[in-house]
Amino acid sequence: MKIWTSEHVFSHPWEKVVTATWRKYPNPLNPAVVGIDVVDRNVANGTLKSQRLISTEWGMPHWACSILGGDKVSYAVEHSEVDARRKCMTLVSKNISFSNEVSIEEKLTYLPHPNKPDATLLKQEAIITVHGIPLSSYFESFISSTISSNAQKGRQALEFVINRMGGNSLEEELHHQVI
């Protein structure tokens, strides 16, 4: 098992960063994400809860697909909660594809920065576990490195989206997402 963690500060208010997360895909900086489908979404006690299916094309090498019996498209499920009153957004995703061989659970938490009123703190954690494959620690390290690289691209993509966003408020975006 390998644990990867990271923190990043966005120089934007929490509301703007959270709004941008709903608009993050598709974007030219993360072409691996080819689809996101909302499976369930509801609001309870002021908290928006969503479940989405994420489709990705990671371009795995042919030999890796042969070992894992994979397809070009891989799937993950994402559970998210947005508590606008507490100003906390949490996304937890877990791979569905290859889950018998490789388990990746990633958690992202967006909070207002404790010392910078117009900034947002992103905390990321991924737990990678490879089961029943030779050189599992090598694969865990390789996957961790890939997650780190993709996290950087994800932060750049979020900045890209923020810079292209209009003036929609969080409430307008949440209303649009629920409908």
Automatic annotation (TrEMBL):
GO CC annotation: mitochondrial intermembrane space
Classification via InterPro entries: PRELI/MSF1_dom, Slowmo/Ups
PROSITE patterns (UniProt xref): PRELI_MSF1
Record domain PRELI/MSF1: where: 1-170
Top-level taxonomic group: Eukaryota
Name used for this protein in its record: PRELI/MSF1 domain-containing protein
Organism, scientific name: Tetranychus urticae
Gene: 107366665
